[in-house]
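Take a minute with the sequence and fold tokens given here and flag any structure token that looks odd. Thanks in advance.
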Amino acid sequence: MGYEPDVARLATFTGIWVAAAAAPGGNSAFTVSISSRYGFGAGLVGALGFVTALMTYLAVVAFGLDFAESQFRPLLNVLRWIGVGYLLYLAVKLWQADGGARLDGAFETAAYRKIYLQGALICFTNPKVMIFIAVVFPQTVVAEQPLVPQLLVLGLCGALSSFAVHATYSLLGHTLG
């Protein structure tokens, strides 16, 4: 029994994924903020951090979401609150940032490793991402087909879609910057 992707199911999944990724939230705010301050490339690095977190979630789904949730519920709750705290911290930092316009059009020098890690942490602790993966992935998987190939295809579609959405947000932020 091999795996043959259902194109209609995959298109529906990808459309839902793109809509969820494009909806304003912590990831999109981070991307626009970073790219407006550091440039387009920095936004792409943040998007790579998001993709890393998404692939980590994919591994959790493949391992067994029910098992992980039942065994690590306290840890997931702690991560959720760390994410809330971190988003509040970023909001305060953004609020306190110098709002003066850069008349020369120059961007600040970016610390790409820090941006990548921030992107991964924001996405990894984003409740919207957790809920989406917990609800949509299981609904999209066909029980009669092998799980791992399905998750790889869905994960690849989700990762590429997320990267494309956040590349667009990065371009927006870069333009605003």
